[in-house]
Specification:
alpha+beta, 4 strands, 2 domains, Outer membrane efflux proteins (OEP), four-stranded antiparallel β-sheet, 10% strand
Length: 481
């Protein structure tokens, strides 16, 4: 008997293996990328930014892209302590466990167990008057319960869907990782800019205070009029208000950086590099839009989600077909515990079960739901590609224009400074009114403020280009790829 059961079990297992390739899932084909084959072409000034060095942007380590030792140390701290990254890592573990649970349904679950049944019967229920009132039955063995023979690929497709969701979650963690690297860099640059702006406002405030004191002395001596004094006071009040605004921005930038780090900045950080556009590599390779499909983790993750939805369609289709499951036990049975494991007490049972759907309204609805979710996943995948294309194109447009804008603003600052000197000389000589001095001071202050902001924007733009191309995942360049 046991040999027959063993042969039957082997035959069932072989049948499962032979039919494991059966799947009703639609054949997966990657949707065409709904973006142009080339990024927009910009002026020749962007050539340095779009030139392709020996390593792609996604393989360029952030330790080489960023040049400030203090920033590199802060990124290390954030990668160890940031709570968003910890949540993302936990979700990967969750998805991996879910995949393991689903994968286990593809093989029988075997277990060893035993049971005993001892029953006392009244005399009038005994078939034989001489029989004992107490009946005993002992059973022990190895068995499997309700194992589904996956003839139509339902379990296989559910396992594939769980696997693709796990891969998608892993890509989501990578997206959080590279986004965190970029956010720390941008918060650090904002902090450094706020510090420079505070120094600028303090110097301007002191300059306005000196100007006000001068005008006040001239007013007291009858040389300057009340209008000049009022204009000087207005400038002084404006700078005082700007100082409070700058202090607030500085504190907020510090708070944001601390949030990203997951702790207060360590006291033993390396010295910061001089703050300028040389904080970053001068060139970031853009490549082609098609490169984004295999290098940006959010796009890869969106495709994993699409493949999971495709597999779920196959599982929903398989539900229209019969479900076959088996329950089996191989072991020993005996009315006496002492003789349970003797060779004459061998026992086996084999219980196949067939379920055929008749009214398939709910099953049909599940298939429609799976198809609808697949269509949504296709649209989300295409939207992710389009968003990535725009992010890269916008950053390339910034690379093509920020250098020229910074040069123009630096020239404007120099010109405004000279204009202020001339206006001050003409006012001291009594040729022009104080209005000319005030106008020149406002123009210089505005040019300096704008130069600081555009410098920050230029740095942030290059970081965004690096992130948009999939950079920030590696610490060091992967030159072997």
């Amino acid at each position: 008997m046991s040999q027959r059961y063993f042969r039957l079990a082997v035959l069932s297992a072989a049948t499962v293996v032979a039919l494991s390739a059966c799947s009703l899932a639609p054949r997966y084909e990657r949707p065409a990328a709904p973006v142009p084959a080339q990024f927009p072409q910009f002026s020749p000034s962007s050539a340095a930014a779009t030139a392709a060095p020996a390593v792609a942007a996604s393989d360029l380590g952030w330790r080489e892209f960023f040049r400030d030792p203090r920033l590199l140390a802060l990124i290390n701290v954030a990668l160890e302590n940031n709570r968003d990254l910890r949540v993302a890592a936990g979700r990967v573990q969750e998805a991996r466990a879910q995949y393991g649970i689903q994968q286990s349904d593809r093989v029988p679950t075997l277990g060893i167990g035993g049971n005993a049944q001892i029953q006392h019967n009244p005399d009038n229920l005994l078939a034989n008057s001489g029989a004992s009132n107490v009946s005993r039955y002992y059973q022990a063995g190895i068995g499997s319960t309700a194992f589904e023979l996956d003839f139509f690929g339902r379990v296989k497709n559910l396992t594939e869907a769980a696997y693709q969701q796990y891969l998608s979650t892993e890509q989501a963690r990578r997206t959080v990782h590279l986004t965190l690297v970029a956010q720390v860099a941008e918060a650090y640059f904002s902090l450094r800019t706020a510090q420079q702006r505070q120094v600028l406002v303090q110097k301007t405030l002191q300059s306005y205070q000196d100007t006000y004191d001068l005008v006040k002395r001239r007013y007291d001596s009858g040389v300057a009029g009340a209008l000049d004094l009022s204009q000087a006071k207005a400038q002084l009040d404006t700078a005082s208000a700007d100082l409070q605004s700058t202090r607030r921005a500085l504190e907020q930038a510090h708070n944001l950086l601390q949030l990203l780090l997951g702790q207060a900045p360590p006291p033993n950080l390396p010295a910061a590099a001089p703050f300028s556009t040389k904080q970053l590599m001068a060139a970031v390779p853009a490549g082609l839009p098609s490169d984004l499909l295999t290098r940006r983790p959010d796009i890869i993750g969106a495709e994993n989600t699409l493949e999971a939805a495709n597999a779920n369609v196959g599982a929903a289709r398989a539900a229209f077909f019969p479900n076959i499951s088996i329950t089996g036990l191989l072991g020993f049975a005996s009315p006496a515990l002492g003789g349970l494991f003797s060779s004459s007490q061998r026992f086996w049972s084999f219980s196949p079960q067939l379920t055929v759907p008749i009214f398939s309204g709910g099953i049909s609805g599940n298939l429609d739901l799976a198809k609808a979710r697949k269509n949504i996943a296709v649209s989300q995948y295409e939207k992710t590609i389009q968003t990535a294309f725009r992010e890269v194109a916008d950053a390339l447009a910034g690379e093509a224009t920020y250098t020229g804008q910074l040069e123009a603003l630096q020239s404007l600052e120099s010109t405004s400074r000279n204009t202020l000197k001339l206006a001050q000389l003409r006012y001291d000589a009594g040729i022009d009114s104080f209005l000319q001095v005030q106008t020149a001071e406002i123009a210089l202050y505005s040019a300096q403020q704008q130069l600081l902001q555009v410098r920050l924007n230029a740095l942030s733009n290059r970081v965004e280009l690096y992130k948009a191309l999939g950079g920030g995942w590696l610490a060091d360049s992967n030159r072997g790829s």
